[in-house]
Design goal:
Strand content: over 45%
Distance between the termini: 51 Å
Shape: globular
Low-confidence stretches: 1-8, 34-38
Mean pLDDT: 80
Number of strands: 8
Radius of gyration: 16 Å
Helix content: under 10%
Structural class: mainly beta
């Protein structure tokens, strides 16, 4: 085996989103309290692309603020949500529904308000979070 083969990527394989979403529990209940013992039960890593994880998730309620060191792609698979971006100290809400996606610019604080969605995200790692009680600095 040569050094080239050591770094070879695995053969691509199709991913069944229906199967990937099956069994995922909602992260938050309608009262915005954790509905799970472990939030990981709401997220499933499908693969990686460079410094990003390809995730599917199911959640409802208002999520904490978060940001990443690179652009993040968010695609609504089911449901609808308000995605709130924080720029220049002001909240900018955008309504998203099934089949729509948005690219959140790097280092932009953002959060969801939703009655319930299933989402696919290409998310840079790591994720920085802040409480929903106060706006991040």
């Amino acid at each position: 085996m040569t050094g080239h083969e050591d770094n070879k990527s695995p053969d691509p394989a199709p991913v069944d989103l229906t199967q990937a979403l099956s069994g995922l529990a909602f992260l938050l209940d309608p009262a915005n309290t954790p509905a799970l013992d472990t939030p990981e039960d709401s997220f499933r890593l499908l693969g990686r692309l460079h410094d990003r994880g390809l995730f599917v998730s199911t959640f409802s309620g208002d999520t904490p603020w978060e940001r990443h060191g690179a652009d993040e792609l968010l695609l609504i698979l089911e449901g609808e949500a308000k995605l709130v971006l924080l720029t220049d100290g002001h909240e900018h809400p955008t309504q998203l529904s099934k089949g729509q996606f948005l690219v959140v610019p790097e280092n932009t604080w953002h959060r969801f308000e939703t009655p319930g969605i299933r989402i696919l995200g290409l998310t840079p790692q790591p994720t920085e979070t802040s409480s929903t009680d106060k706006l991040p600095d």
